[in-house]
Amino acid sequence: MADWKTPDNAKYTENDEWIIVDGDTAKVGLTDYAQDQLSDIVFVDMQVEVGDTVSAGDSFATVESVKAASDVYAPASGEVVAVNSALDDTPETINGDPFGAGWMIEIKLSDAGELDGLLDAAAYAKHCAEREG
Amino acid sequence: MTYIPHTDADRKAMLEAIGVDSLDDLFDAVPADLRFPELDLPPGLSEMETAWELNGLASANVAANDFALFLGAGAYNHFIPSVVNHILLRGEFYTAYTPYQPELSQGTLQAIFEYQSMMCALTGMEVANASHYDGATSLAEAVIVANAHFRGKRSKIILSPGVNPQYRAVVRTYHQGNDLKFVGDKGSATVPDLVDMLDDDTAMLVVSYPNFFGQIDDLAGLAKSVHDAGALLCMVVDPIALGLFKSPGELGADIVVGEGQPLGIPLSFGGPYLGFFATREKFVRKIAGRIVGETVDADGRRAYVMTLRPREQDIRREKATSNICTNQGLMALAACVYMSVMGKHGLRRAAELCYHKAHYAAQQIDALEGYSVDMSQPFFKEFVVTCPEPVAAINDVLLEHWGIIGGYDLSKDYPARENQMLLAVTEMNTKDEIDTLVEALRSAPDDIANHAHHHHHHS
Amino acid sequence: MTDELIVNKNGAPPPLEPLIYDLGAPGRTGAILPKPDVPEADLPADLLRDDLDLPEVSEMDVVRHFLRLSQFNYAIDKGFYPLGSCTMKYNPKLNEDMARLPGFALAHPLQDPSTVQGALALMYQLQEWLAAISGLEAVSLQPAAGAQGEFAGILMIRAYHLANGEAHRTKIIVPDSAHGTNPATTAMTGLEVVEIPSDANGDVDLDKLREVCGEDVAGMMITVPNTLGVFERHIQDIVDIIHGCGGLMYMDGANMNAMLGIAKPGDLGFDVMHYNLHKTFSTPHGGGGPGSGPVAVGDKLLPFLPGPIVTIVDEGDEGEPPLYGLTMPEQSIGALKAFWGNFGMLVRAFTYISINGANGLRAVTDHAVLNANYIRSRLQGTYPMPFERICGHEFVCEGHFKDADGIHALDISKRLMDYGFHPPTNYFPLIVPEALLIEPTETETKEACDAFVEAMLAIAKEAKESPDVLHEAPHVTPVKRVDDVRAAKDLILCCRVIPDWDAEAAK
Question: What ipTM was predicted for this assembly?
Answer without folding.
Answer: 0.97
